[in-house]
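Example 3.2
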Amino acid sequence: MVLVYLAFRQLMFKKANLIFMLLAIGFGLGFQWPNIANLTGYSVELIEKFVTKGVGHFIVYHKDRKGFITNEKLYQEIRSLISTKSIYARIRLPGLITEINETSTTQSVEILGMEKEEWELITNVPFFQPKTRHIPEILIGKQVKDATGFKDLPLVLKIVSIYNKKPIILKAKAVFVPEYGYSTEKQLILPLHILQKAIQRKNWITELGVISYSNFPKQTNDKLADPNMRTLHWSETNDFVRSAIRGNQILVIISSFMVMLGVAIPIMALLYIGVLEDRRNIALLSSLGVYKYKIFLIYFFRALLVAVLGCALGVLLGYGLLKYFLNYPIYKTPSFTILPVVSFYDFVYSVLIVFGVVLISGIYPAIRAYNLNPVVIFREE
């Protein structure tokens, strides 16, 4: 305790240096923690929009890309291999869409048939009930809307695909989904049973989209019992999201390195200057019989005290910035919002990075204090 008191007392004698060191540590940690939280939030939003509300964390499909008939046994097998939250049956096929009017425009699209639960996950529009509504809704992606100029009024559409022998004539009301998710593709989305009826293939689908409880589920090496069926992880289906998340991870490493340099350089310099300024005091302590290792500990405790106080300041500053970004996101649109993800792991990681850098920065000045020769110092006087 005496050594800690001496370290604290020496710090208080040089308040300007102490304030500068605390600000350097506080701003370093105050930047690092919210920065990681925002980058994590960006990754989570990408997963939410392009994976959870997109193709799914996993896709189960026929190896020859043929369709197949769903059955409960396959669902149970998938649940045994993957921590499954939801399984969505889909039909995905290429096609053409034309609005039947005087100025009809034909547009190539990807036609999707999906179930009620997935439909309502993507849009707030209730899934229509055939017995009570005569004009169904279809979801039209942004690119299709921009290319065709479709309105949300009832449309009479002609849909042609490789699976229907004659064109499907469908009267429907268009619903334009947001810019992210399915709508980034040229897609037209119908209720699954309507598409199955149109192509005359009951219970037939082309894929199963599997949603996991985890935002970032790991790939599975387990194979399904049917040798014709395959499981595909989301990272193999979406290059953009995979690359963006990998880029975020690299940014976290780079920002951590920048914070380490930004904190280490001024802290080490000021602590070392403090040792040079205290050379006479160190010599007096040595002449009074204070062991060298205790002198080392005094200056190491200086770094420890600075680290504790600076990190406390940084936590307060970082928490304030997190609260600010939660109320005022760095990026916000109706369809894509980046909110910081506050996690205990990121908090501990940020604190340990800064705390460890300060301690390491204090070791060299403490070693210099340990190695000072009091005889040489007194001769210089």
